[in-house]
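Quarterly update from the structural biology core.
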Amino acid sequence: MDNDEGKTSLEELDKKLNSALSKKEEESKKSSNSAGPGSMRVGVELMAGVFVGAGLGYFLDKWLDTLPIFFIIFFFFGVAAGALNIYKLAAGTGGEEKTDQNPEEN
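Predicted structure, tokenized:
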């Protein structure tokens, strides 16, 4: 084995390792700067419950001319529904369908 040939293969290996490490560092910087899609979903789940509940209460109050009774009641129902959705999301039962492993047994 020629000495020059060994140096070039080591240099190539060094370049590949450095590029892989720099890519890994860039990915870790990107992931550490953002909180991720999971945290956005938590906010959306909570706000959706609040908006739907408050909206239903508001329109019921307008229809029945009882402002703000139903608005307040349904606002708190919306907060409770949003909190329940967040709990389900954190517990891992966020609405995914459960499938049987072997459907032929049914």
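The helical segments are 3-33, 37-64, 69-91.
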